[in-house]
Amino acid sequence: MMKTLLLCVTLSVFSVPSTRTEPFFREYHYVKALKTWEEAQQACRELHSDLATVDSPAESARLLGEVQEPGELAWIGLYDNMTKWKWTMGRPEFDRNIDYHCWQDDNPKYKCLNDTCATVRYNGLWRDEICNTERPFVCYNEQGPPKFIYVTTFMTWDDAKNYCRSMYTDLARVNSEAENTELYNLLPRNAWIGLYRRPGLPGLWFNVNCEEKHNFFCERLIPPRSRVKLRFRSGADLTDPQIQLQILEQLQAELQTNSLTDVRLRWITRDGQVFHEEKEEGK
C-alpha cells in the first residue's frame, strides 16, 4: 500500500548568496589542555574556528554550562585592544590612530588586564596603572581658570573621578600636545587623568596574565540553517538507512543541477524516526 509521508531536510548554506540576517550559531567546545592564551588561540584556529567569543547573555549561559569543573578558569577570545580605552569627559571613545596620546614606549604595559587607568608622569609621558593604586590627580574645571587643577591628595582612580566631578567638572582630558605640556608642568609625580579601560561584560570573566596556562573554549561557527518539509508517496522501506541515503543523494544531485553546490543535507529525526506517516483527513 502506498503511504503519504512527511520528511524534513536541513540545509546548511555556506556560500550561496542569501538575504538572511540571522547570525552564525556559535558552537562551543571546552578543551581540557593547559595552554597560554596565544597557544589556545592557535589551537582553536587549527581545530575549530577561533577562541570563543560571547555577544549575548544567552551565549554566556551556554558557554558557562560547558564548564566541567565549577570554579575552574578557562581562556576565551577577549584580549587587550586600544579601542577599549575611554575618556570620562567629552567623546568617550579613544582611538590611538586619530586621538592625541603620549604613551611611554613600553605602555600600555598591562596587556592582559582591562581594568587599568592612565597617569601622566612629571615628564609628560603617559602610563597605564592598576586603577586601585592611590595617586594624586588632575581635575578639569570648565567654569574658569585655571583649566587644570592638580590635587595632591592620594586617591584611587574612582575616588579621584568622584572628587573631580563633585568639586570641578571631571578628571582631566588631554586633547593636544599643548594641553599635555600645560598639565605635566603642574606635576611633581605621576597623577591620574580621565583615561581608563574597564569593559562591562556579562558572565564570570576574570583578568589574568596571558602567559598563564589554562584550559580553554573554542568556537565553531555554524552557518544559518533552513528547514524544508517534503511530502511524497513511496512504496519503499523508508526506515532502511540505505534507502534514506539514496534519497539524500538524489536530493543533493537535484540541488546541484540548480547551481546550489555548497549545500549540505541531513535528516532530522523526531521520536527516533525520520519519516512520519501523515494521517488522511476523515480517517
From TrEMBL:
Domain named C-type lectin: residues: 28-140
Keyword Nucleus: no
Entry keywords, A to Z: Signal
Signal peptide: 1-21
Cell cycle as UniProt keyword: no
Recorded superkingdom: Eukaryota
Name of the protein described by the UniProt record: C-type lectin domain-containing protein
